[in-house]
Design a protein that fits this description.
The chain has about 120 residues and is mainly beta. It has one helix and nine strands. It has a five-stranded antiparallel sheet. A hairpin with a 4-residue loop joins β1 and β2. It is globular and about 35 Å long.
């Protein structure tokens, strides 16, 4: 793996989303046999729709502020830049209060259920 500039990654993902006219952008950072990492950019007001989690995963808020909403448990977690959150094994969605860059780290072995 090479060095990744987080400010550059943030700008690139924002530009990709704007060019495609989509409300979010994603990029695999690491796709190894034991660890995968996915960078996710959301604009203020953007939503990562309801999806499941196949197992062990961590969400690191690199910039911005999001709300992590557990669907069945009726719980909302407000996460800010610098937070590292253990993703529960439950249906959930993520809503961005401000423009945000997230890093999802997970162990492969089951399909990751994220929207296209």
């Amino acid at each position: 793996m090479t060095l990744i500039s987080l400010p550059t990654l943030h700008e690139e993902l924002r530009a990709e989303a704007e060019a495609a006219g989509t409300p979010l952008a994603r990029r695999h950072i690491t796709a190894g046999a034991r660890l995968q990492q996915l960078a996710i950019w959301l604009p203020a007001g953007g939503v990562l729709p309801e999806h499941g989690n196949p197992g062990e995963a961590r969400l690191h808020i690199l910039s911005g502020q999001v709300r992590f909403i557990e669907i069945g448990a009726e719980r909302t977690h407000t996460l800010v830049a610098g937070d590292l959150f253990a993703v529960p094994d439950a249906l959930h969605r993520v809503e961005a209060d401000t423009e945000s860059l997230l890093l999802l780290s997970f162990v492969p072995g089951a399909e990751l259920h994220t929207p296209a």
